[in-house]
Structures are given as C-alpha cells and as structure tokens.
Amino acid sequence: MQDSKDVEGMMLKIFSVEPWNDDWSDREQLRQYVQELMGNRNSLSFGLYEDGGLIGISLGRIKHWCEGTEYWIDEFGILPAKQGAGMGSTFLAGIERCLTERRIFEIILLTDRDVPAYWFYRKNGFGEIAGMCFLRKKLRIGERKRFLTIRSAAV
C-alpha cells in the first residue's frame, strides 16, 4: 500500500462517521497524520483490496520490546459499506500470518469500550491488558515555564 492519498480518503470514509465522528476538516493535519503512520522507518501498513479497490486499512508500527517484537495498530478499519461481512476478520487473519512470518509475536491496539469495534476485536482473540490503563494530559498551548530549556531530537 503506497498511495497516502487513498489512505487519507479511507480515513475520512471510515472515521468521520458513526461511531467515531472524527473531525478531519483540517486536511493538512490528516495528511501529516497519515504520513507519520506510513512514513517512519518502523511503519508497517496493510491494505485490503477487493476487485482492485482499497476497502480496508491497518496502519501501525513495529516496536522492539524486551519480550519480543510487537505490531502496534494505530488505525484499523473497513469501509462502512463492507463491514459486517467478515472482511475485517479475514483481514486481521491475513495480517497475523504476515506478522508471524516476520517473527512478530503480538498485536497491540487501543479502542473505545463502548463501540462495536471493541466486540470485533474481542471476537478476534484480543483481550484487555490486566493492570494497564491509557492516560493522557491535555496541554495548554502557549504556556511558558521558567528556567528550563527543552530540546527535541525529533526532526
């Protein structure tokens, strides 16, 4: 899967509707997001095609961890019109085959508990990680701190 424009279109079709309702009206933000997911040296993206057309995406990255190599899925989706027909499960099974051939031992992802995707993943063998939780902190842009200089190695 090479064409990021196709992936951007898929992101809009899959995630701008129920149950996600993601607001991707800032197309430049979407373009950069897709480039980040697909363009890093540890990126691993898969596409599901039907009759030559892209109908599913899995955008993620490989993470080398002390217990082995993992595939972290940042975005996984099937076109809404194609959902419910087993294509997502078939897609995941194909991804799992590719990963095991690469000696990647685990898939990790985040999803909301109150959406159908949660039950899709459970049906496909995913379980919650006991003792773990997902945290975030919203930052106030423009806030200045005294006496500290922070430098980033990111490009």
From TrEMBL:
Q: Name one Pfam family in it.
A: Acetyltransf_1
InterPro entries from the xrefs? Answer: Acyl_CoA_acyltransferase (IPR016181), GNAT_dom (IPR000182)
Q: Which residues form the N-acetyltransferase domain?
A: 1-140
Listed GO molecular functions? acyltransferase activity, transferring groups other than amino-acyl groups
User: What is the name of this protein?
Assistant: GNAT family N-acetyltransferase
The organism named in the record is Candidatus Gallacutalibacter pullicola
